[in-house]
UniProtKB/TrEMBL annotation, chain B:
Organism: Jiangella asiatica
Main localization (coarse): membrane
Protein name: Sugar ABC transporter permease
Bilayer-crossing regions: 29-57, 92-114, 121-145, 185-204, 225-246, 285-306
GO CC field: plasma membrane
Keyword tags: Cell membrane, Membrane, Transmembrane, Transmembrane helix, Transport
Biological processes annotated in GO: transmembrane transport
Localization per record: Cell membrane
Superkingdom of the organism of origin: Bacteria
Start-end of Low complexity biased regions: 1-16
Length: 303, 312
């Protein structure tokens, strides 16, 4: 344990070595226990509200609205009534369809604009590529809160208000900058020889990009698709400001505005909708976490 | 869009002589690749931004969208309303407190996420939930968690004997403030942790091992090796936490609607109340523009942190 060679383990008496070894083992064991405790605690705090949502979603009214009942247990049999109500008798399925549809279009637009831009910034050796990449990233930090009023006027002017098309048009302003940044990272991760080889084989630069680079970027593109879709599904202010008829609403605005009628909250259905949306997104993110981290850090590294 | 069909050619075609076709000239190609994205972003971020500044000095309203210069009238209307000052103060308090807590908890969480243990994937999944779920939806969870009558937190406090009746989390100004901050911290800690995790992964293994061999314990390595080395990313995490707290209105809108009596109103939600719900676009734009100086400062600091990272 000590850097000084004269007191290293080799010259110390056996008892001392044993004592130090035991101390080390205990410390390590203590560290492991602490780690598990912290991990469980973190998971409980993070997921607690969702567990509470899941339990609520399956409760009978009479169980839910008795203040003395244990809120975390089923004091009366569980029921799927409220989940069925959500699917059959509320516009929730419409919100899901709207979100998927807008999400798919926004993802397509993002890739169409972002892929070439990322390639140009990562690979085509322009002196302005570094600053341009950073500038693009900063656009992501310009918040919807600052722009929603003027964009609402723009949307009205284009005749797109109360239509999901307004979101298809505006959401890429959020997704293109951040996804291009991610894609720059993935492009830098590809070895340069790949394109050079393709060009030696007779492809033009453009051909090498379309036929060789894009297919190789596939894992990164998957990550970008997920990221762009999640940003689209999470956005709130634009969706709230541009659209008011319930048939055109997204999940993020429809749920908190349409499933609450005045003072009447459909609590179980609300919580069910929360779980239905939250779990799949988080699952996919968990699987792709390593890729996101790699993409974002690579983007900041000089190519 | 940018891919002219003539530019791709099969490998069999003769490559010499016609080498400098458009598909090969890197200068124009770089522009061609970049331009669509730049035009899109400038048209729908740059122009609206200038428009927002223009609106702040006008009398534009939802009822009368024609543009007339009105000087500082919108600002005067905003400043005369004490709610604006309340919203400004709240925004700064929420942002400051959340940022500190986000960094502290995020650092701890990053160290947990990077460690190797059984059930790691489940923990990662559960921990990412607050960040990946649309804010408006997870806030609905909190709305129910903090319900005035059926809050399970109240139930636990009652069982332990600390509470009779209810806390009315969202009904009292201090508790409502604490609740809004709690939701922000809860939803942004995972993001901060993931950013800091990226920093921890990037530390070369031998540095940590060298410190270990030199006899540095866990805390010493943490404070004298890891934290200094990952400082740029800790800064980036802090600033992201600040920006997302600072500019968000979904939490306040869903959780408290700015209440009780505007005690949790923030600039973003107040701009929405005035600009969209009240139809006073000019005043809404003037209020929202107050977000800009702080955003700019945060952006400059992030830029500096990123520069330091590249030096590293």
């Amino acid at each position: 344990m000590d850097a000084n060679p004269s007191t290293s383990v080799f010259t110390e008496p056996r008892a001392e070595v044993d004592r130090q070894r035991r101390r080390y083992v205990w410390r390590r064991r203590g560290g492991r226990v602490g780690l598990y405790l912290l991990a469980v605690l973190a998971a409980m705090v993070a997921a607690g509200p969702f567990v509470w949502s899941a339990v609520t979603a399956l409760k009978l009214n009479s169980d839910l609205y008795t203040a003395t009942n244990n809120p975390f247990a089923f004091n009366e049999p569980a029921t799927l009534d409220h989940v069925l109500f959500l699917v059959q008798d509320t516009p929730f399925p419409t919100f899901v369809v709207n979100t998927l549809w807008v999400g798919a279009l926004v993802v397509a637009i993002t890739l169409l604009f972002g892929l070439p831009a990322a390639y140009a910034l990562a690979r085509l050796d322009r002196p302005w590529a570094g600053p341009a990449g950073i500038a693009l990233f900063f656009v992501y930090l310009v918040p919807p809160t600052l722009l929603f009023l003027s964009l609402t006027r723009v949307v009205v002017w284009l005749g797109l208000q109360d239509s999901t098309w307004s979101l298809v048009l505006i959401y890429p302003t959020i997704t293109i900058p951040v996804c291009t940044w991610l894609l720059i990272g993935f492009c830098k991760g590809l070895p340069k020889d790949v394109e050079e080889q393709a060009m030696v084989d007779g492809y033009s630069r453009l051909g090498a990009f379309a036929r060789v680079v894009v297919p190789l970027l596939f894992p990164g593109i998957v990550a970008v698709v997920v990221f762009a879709f999640t940003l689209t599904a999470s956005e709130f202010i634009y969706a709230l400001a541009f659209i008011s008829p319930s048939a055109e609403k997204m999940v993020s605005t429809g749920v908190p505005t349409e499933l609450i009628r005045g003072d009447v909250f459909f609590w179980q259905s609300l919580q069910a909708s929360n779980i239905v949306v939250a779990v799949p997104i988080a699952l996919v993110f968990t699987l792709l976490l390593g890729r996101f981290v790699a993409g974002f850090t690579m983007g900041a590294v000089k190519g | 869009m940018t891919q002219a069909p003539t530019a791709t050619r099969p490998s069999a075609a003769p490559a010499t002589g016609r080498r400098r076709r458009l598909g090969d000239r890197e200068g124009p190609l770089a522009w061609l690749f970049l331009l669509p994205a730049v035009v899109y972003v400038v048209a729908l971020v740059g122009v609206p931004f200038v428009l927002a500044i223009g609106f702040a000095f006008s009398d534009v309203s939802a009822g009368d969208p024609s543009y007339d210069w009105a000087g500082l009238d919108a600002y005067r209307r905003a400043f005369d309303d004490p709610v604006f000052w309340q919203a400004l103060r709240n925004t700064l308090v929420f942002t400051g407190v959340s940022m500190v807590l986000i960094v502290l908890f995020g650092k701890v969480l990053a160290n947990i996420l990077i460690a190797d243990f059984r059930g790691k994937w489940l923990v990662r999944f559960l921990v990412l939930l607050p960040w990946t779920t649309p804010v408006a939806l997870s806030t609905v969870s909190w709305l129910w968690l903090l319900d005035s009558i059926f809050s399970p937190i109240d139930w636990i406090l009652r069982q332990v004997g600390l509470l009779e009746g209810n806390m009315y989390w969202l009904g009292r100004p201090t508790l409502a403030t604490a609740s809004v901050i709690a939701v922000h911290v809860w939803r942004l800690v995972p993001l901060a942790a993931v950013i800091m995790m990226a920093g921890l992964i990037a530390i070369p293994r031998d540095i940590d091992e060298a410190a270990r061999v030199d006899g540095a314990g866990f805390w010493r390595r943490m404070f004298e090796v890891t934290i200094p080395l990952t400082m740029p990313l800790i800064a980036v995490a802090a600033l992201f936490g600040a920006i997302f707290t600072f500019t968000d209105m979904a939490v306040v809108y869903v959780l408290t609607r700015g209440g009780p009596t505007n005690s949790t109103q923030v600039l973003a939600s107040w701009a929405f109340v005035r600009g969209i719900e009240g139809g006073d676009v000019a005043q809404g734009a003037a209020i929202a523009l107050f977000l800009f100086p702080l955003l700019l400062a945060a952006a400059v600091l992030i830029l500096r942190a990123v520069r330091r990272m590249q030096v590293m």
